Amino acid sequence: MTEDMFSTERLRVRHFTPDDLDDFAALCADPAVMRYVGDGDTLDRAGVAYWIEVCQGKYADRGYGTSAVFERASGDFVGYCGVVRAPGNDFDELIYVFHQRFWGCGYATEAGRAMLDHVFAISSLDEIAATIHPDNHASIKIAGKLGMVEQPSRVVEDDGPSTFFAITREQHAAR
């Protein structure tokens, strides 16, 4: 088993391994879960296996990337959270996606806050962003809870409409 990157009161977070393929693929096959992720399409098993390979390269290069999130009490796979730089972007972005049964539990805020702590601690990043579909009201609320501020002047050429949020290292440290 891979060592945890960090844990919170209710969650454990660690790097993905090939052993996580079944759990990760099941998450990415759910259309409701993937509605606001990328182009909104689900991912097949081969696409998820490739994503795990990319993640492992990011861990080696940067020390962080998309990471597996587990519920501490049950050990169940909740979903993923991480800070990534999408191809073509010039910014690093907080992402999180969880199984529907864990929606509304506060896990995205809990994991997001801890991921920001972790990445700011091990990197030289001055800012971490989030691009959120304007209809994804839950994620917009979470961004606010994390101290992220909407940046209306920043536009991202993404797979669809996005609202840009960001938090600086200083803003995060002051929280």
Automatic annotation (TrEMBL):
Listed InterPro entries:
Acyl_CoA_acyltransferase, GNAT_dom, N-acetyltransferase
The record, for PROSITE patterns, names: GNAT
Q: Where's the N-acetyltransferase domain? A: 11-170
Query: Which PANTHER family did the record assign?
Result: GNAT FAMILY, PUTATIVE (AFU_ORTHOLOGUE AFUA_3G00765)-RELATED-RELATED, N-ACETYLTRANSFERASE DOMAIN-CONTAINING PROTEIN
Q: What is this protein called?
A: GNAT family N-acetyltransferase
- Species of origin: Catellatospora aurea
